[in-house]
Structure formats: structure tokens, C-alpha cells
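Final report, section 2: Outcomes. Of the targets proposed, Bifunctional thiamine biosynthesis protein ThiDN is the one most frequently requested by collaborating groups, and we therefore present its record in full.
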Amino acid sequence: MKKHNILIIGGYDPTGGAGVIADAKTAKILGVNPLTITTSIIPQNNRAVYDKMDIPKKIIEEQLEAIFEDFDVSVVKTGVLNKDAIDLILKYKRHYDFKIVCDPVLKSTTNYKFVDEDLLRRYIDLFNESYLITPNEEEFNTIINFIEKNNLWGNIDKNPYILITGIDDKLTTLKDKGIIETIKGKKIDKEVHGTGCVFSSAIASFLCKGEGLREAIKKGKDVVLASVIYATKTKYNYNSNPTYINKEKVIKNLSYALYLLKKIEFSLIPEVGSNIAESLLLPNSFKDVAALTGRIIKNKLGGFYIVGDVEFGASEHIAKIILTAKNYNPQIRACMNIRYEEDLIDALSEKFSISSFDRKLEPPNVSTMEWGTKYACEKFGGVPDIIYDKGGDGKEPMIRVLGVNTIEVVKKVVEIQKIYDHI
Ligand SMILES: Nc1ncnc2c1ncn2[C@@H]1O[C@H](COP(=O)(O)OP(=O)(O)OP(=O)(O)O)[C@@H](O)[C@H]1O
Ligand SMILES: Cc1ncc(CO)c(N)n1
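The predicted structure is given below as C-alpha cells.
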């Protein structure tokens, strides 16, 4: 089977939030082999871009020669380029068959200008040879105005796709102007450095794996949304953290979490049994949440059985906790219920953040899990590690452990069991 090699050609951001490092991290998590060529060294962080040193044309060419001599490349994704780099990419495009995904990085989010009019004129030739161009709204307007002002439509004989990126993206083509499709997004209240790089390299990676354009954009959108939600906090802002949450990842996490649970003498099992669940990113319904179709139940030997399989849509009860918690922290995608013990809660307060709800305060005609989780999160001011209630009306008291995924949740349960065993 042909190896998926993507060639990333762009600038070097030492923080890895943008540029070839961000692109390579994105390609790697998507199962594509990232070959990278650096066109310029760009000292920067979330505060500013401090400088830009272009790599000599000879060294860029030697990097290209080294790669094409030894690898088959199906997609080339471009970031910050200079004139030499564009000249060379177009030269190699004449001799090798690869798709170009061009992310026209005209300036940084910290307003450092990467492209002057002379270089933008050369970019038009690269756009003409590209399969897809991914400008943000401002870059798109700059490009179209430049072509109009300089009457350059005659230099364009092909019709590349353009994805105008934003929270909602608009798919069009360079010549047809009309919007073919709008891809709706979800806004997270964060300014994250490098999202354009992650989004365009994710789309390029899915294309490299053989996905069609629309599927590549749709999956790329999930990648960049996760990369924003799990972004790395820096002193001045956030750096993109290339992350991809899909059904395969959720099932793998759950399987490994159950593997870890079986390694301990887990005894904090409630009468109704435990379940453990993990959701896709920003789940819309319990169908986006995977859990056990059965339960974790005590056996007569003091141990426990894990009954059932892991399936999406298997648990509405635990799913409601996750579906509610995500509104307070979109990173929280997992939960497991364990047995409540009176003196355990006090013992846990040193290591874990805890909140609770009281069933006696529950209003009529509500889902207890939705109301209780909302109540506990609002009282806590976010999503705590633990939400408990002391039961009532024939309902068993319960502890619910929450986390970013089921592996983290089980590691918390292992710690809780240790504390319980030593009370
Ligand atoms: N705060 C956010 N919440 C959700 N999605 C976001 C957010 N910021 C960026 N994105 C996603 O990242 C994609 C690219 O972001 P944007 O359009 O800002 O590119 P850009 O301006 O080129 O970014 P940069 O220059 O920082 O690399 C958007 O299409 C959007 O899906
Ligand atoms: C190296 C590099 N590539 C792309 C961007 C776009 O944000 C940046 N700031 N730095």
C-alpha cells in the first residue's frame, strides 16, 4: 500500500504553535508521514514575531532534491514562503505529480507582514497550480483585490478551490466567486496561535490519505476544533495543540481504561453497578457517547465483572452527565460512577476538586443527571473531578468521577480506591 507522505514547506516557529512544526504534529497524529522543508526561521511567540531569516535558495533546493530523490510525495502543503521557495515548488510541480494545498500566510495574527506586493505577484502563479487555497477572510480579500487591481486574471488559466476559513468556512473557487458550500463551525472563546496551519495541514493530510475534498475539510474542521479546545496555555495566549478525537480514539481510550481498571482490586462498586463513558468532542446526544452495554458489577469472590461491550449510545444516564458538563468545560468528555462512602468524600478533598447536589432540592419534571450536574458545576464554577449526591427516594448515593478521557478517569478511580483502602 502506498505510504502516505506529505511534504510540508513553510517557516519555522520555535514555539511549535504554527509553521512546519505545527503542520508536522498535525500530519503525524493523522497517520501521515510529515516530510518538512524550512523556508525561513521566524523567531516568534504569542506576543510577537521578532524576525525572519530566509533560508538560501540553494539550501531549499537541496532539501527538495533530498526528499524527491528518496520519497514519493502525494501532497505538498505550503505555509510561509519566499520567492525562491515558490520558484522551486513550481519547478518541481512540472516534474512530479502532487497536489498543492496552499495556505497563503500573508501576515501573522500578531500583525507581522510575511508577504509584500512583489511576493504576492509570484503567489498568483502558485495559486494557479494549487488544488486548494486556504486563506482567512482578510487574506482572501487581499488576494482578490490584488488580482483585480493588477489585472492579473489573465495569469490564471486553472480554477483552484478556495476555502475561506473562519468559524464558518466558505468553499468556492478562484474564478467562480459563488459559494459552493458553507461549513458551519463552533466558536470556542479562545485566541489560539496557529489554527490556520493546523486546519490547512489537517485537510492536506486527509487528502493525502485519499479522502475527497469535502470529507477532508469536514474532518479537518474536527481536528482544528479539538486543537483549540485542548490548546496549550502560554503566558500571552494559547498555542494550537493538534488533537483528533474520533470514534476510533474514543473506543481505544475506553478499552485501555478498562484494561487499567482490571489491574486493581476495584471495590467501590455501587449496588446498581458502575458504568464508564467517553464522548466525541462536543457531543450532541447520547449517541455521541460510548459506554458499556452492560455494567461493572461485583462478583461473589470480592472482585468484579465487566459485563457487555463498548458501544456508542449504550448509556443515556452517564451520557447526560457528560452532555451537561461539556457546557462548563468542553475538554471534559468522560465520566464513571462509583460507590459513595461517607468518610471517603472528606478523605478525597485534599487531592480532588469536589462538588455535589442534593436530590431534595431537585425541581419537578427534570432529568436528575442534567439538573444535578448543572447544579454542581455552577456551584463549583466549572467541572470538578468529582460530583456526588447522598441519594434519596430509593436512589443510592453516588460518586461520579469526570475527566478529559476515560483513561484519566480510571487513573483518578485508581487513586480514589487507594485512598479508600487506607481510610
Ligand atoms: N476560537 C476558535 N474556536 C473554534 N474554532 C477556531 C477558533 N479559532 C480558529 N478556529 C478554527 O481554525 C480555523 C483557522 O482559523 P483562522 O481562520 O483564524 O485561520 P488563520 O487566521 O490563518 O489562523 P492563524 O493565522 O492563527 O494560523 C478556522 O476555520 C476555525 O475552524
Ligand atoms: C512559521 C509560521 N507559519 C505560519 C504562521 C501563521 O500564523 C506563523 N505565525 N509562523
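DSSP finds twelve helices and 21 strands in the chain.
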